From TrEMBL:
This is Predicted arabinose efflux permease, MFS family. The keyword Glycoprotein does not apply. Residues 17-400 form the Major facilitator superfamily (MFS) profile domain. The chain crosses the membrane at residues 12-36, 56-75, 82-99, 105-129, 141-161, 173-192, 213-233, 253-273, 285-306, 312-332, 344-366, 378-396.
Length: 413
């Protein structure tokens, strides 16, 4: 397939297509967060354990992450538009299947389909911005990614809590399918192909590009920091509903409101990150990690003293602000690092981040089960300390790169 046979985006529709692309960015968050309040209800309705319900999240994250490792090359070779349209259609169908089955293994299979199709949808829209924009305007749009993405964690569980309370867990997937169907219709009418020229699909070449990207230490460390930041959020997503609904004996609607509150924290961190984009990088990141560690320790102390939900929410909120701050700073850098291979860079970044998140969040919730605020605070501390170690490595790499540049200058003189 060549892009010459595909409907090109009309110049007059670029603005609408940009809005539609931003509307697609939160889909990965919607697909995980909307049914967070339903996790305890799913365990009852399907007769499964909490770990089996949490596995529906992990399978999505793994398939979403791994798919991005390959989808970037396909998008650079075969274009963005048709792949995105087919993915939206398959996503809608899989949502309908989940809503009409009580077979756990069918749910597992469809969640894997969700991961693959949303990977194609989201990565294609990330690449759209690099296809259409450049310079400061591109940097401006990319810095909004974390903020726009955070609308998913903010809105989705709030909606999901009411859907669960009123219609049951299946209604969450009807909502997801309906949202994707609406975007599909709008894409058909207003969007189109954006890639200017495709590159032949040669797996060996793509592997070599991946290898070169991964050899760039600052890029790889950035992906590690992105993974650790989002794992803090996902650890709460997998633990919070059980803490609220089992430990505190509150309703799914309360879970939705709590997730709404903590989702807003990610957005606040994104705005702070955008506002401090020109501040010294390593210094602001180290200060952020110190603040996060202090907040996690305070969560532990106040929970042990008061044993109240507010102690979890207030200090988890502050930890999540720091996570959003980290994500915004590193995400903009990683996507801009390799503009000639935007699809591959975006796929590799998103893919590895979600693989890291799926493995870390599953491991942490296994070692520290979704029980109470104490286990949640221990989870945060483990991730924050690891982030500090990664940032130390970033400092070392920066010093080495600065020394290499200085030595090169001296040789040229």
């Amino acid at each position: 397939m060549t892009t010459s046979t595909v409907k090109r985006i009309k110049e007059g529709n670029v603005g609408i297509a940009t809005v539609l692309a931003f509307a697609m960015i939160p889909m990965s968050g919607f697909a995980t967060d909307i049914y967070i309040p339903s996790l305890p209800g799913m365990t009852t309705a399907l007769g499964i354990s909490s770990s089996q319900a949490q596995l529906t999240l992990s399978l999505f994250l793994i398939s979403y992450g791994v798919s991005q490792l390959f989808i970037g090359g396909l998008l650079d070779s075969y274009g963005r538009y048709r792949i995105a349209l087919v993915s939206m259609l398959l996503f809608c169908i899989s949502c309908g299947i989940i809503a009409n089955t009580h077979n756990l293994y069918v749910v597992y299979a469809m969640r894997i389909v969700h991961g693959i199709t949303i990977a194609a949808m989201v990565v294609s829209k990330r690449a759209l911005f690099i296809d259409l924009y450049s310079g400061e305007k591109l940097k401006h749009y990319l810095s909004f990614f974390t903020i726009i993405w955070s609308t998913g964690p903010i809105i989705a569980p709030f909606i999901g809590g009411y859907l669960e309370e009123t219609f049951g867990w299946e209604s969450n997937f009807y909502f997801l399918g309906g949202y994707a169907a609406l975007l599909l219709i709008l894409e058909v009418f207003f969007s189109g192909e954006t890639i200017k020229s495709t590159t032949p699909f040669h797996p060996a070449r793509i592997v070599s590009i991946y290898y070169e990207m991964l050899r760039t230490s600052s890029f790889t460390l950035g992906i590690g920091m992105l993974g650790l930041a989002y794992t803090m959020v996902m650890t709460y997503n997998m633990s919070g509903p059980f803490i609220i609904e089992h430990y505190f004996n509150l309703s799914p609607v309360v879970t939705g409101y709590c997730s709404l509150f903590l989702g807003f924290a990610w957005m606040v961190g994104g705005f702070i990150g955008k506002g401090t984009v020109n501040r010294p990088f390593v210094r602001k990141m180290n200060i952020n990690i110190l603040f996060q560690l202090a907040f996690a320790l305070t969560l532990l102390v106040t929970f042990l003293l008061f044993n109240q939900l507010w102690t979890v929410l207030v200090f988890a909120f502050l930890v999540h602000v720091g996570a959003g701050f980290t994500y915004t700073n590193y995400f903009t850098y990683c996507l801009q690092r390799f503009p000639k291979n935007a699809g591959i860079a975006g796929g590799l970044t998103g893919g590895l981040v979600y693989v890291i998140v799926s493995l870390l969040s599953a491991g942490i919730t296994y070692v520290l089960p979704a029980k109470d605020g104490q286990n949640l605070s221990f989870s945060y501390m483990a991730l924050i300390v690891t982030s500090g170690l990664v940032m130390y490595r970033v400092l070392v790499v920066n010093r080495q790169e600065a020394a290499a540049v200085e030595q090169e200058k001296m040789q040229t003189v």
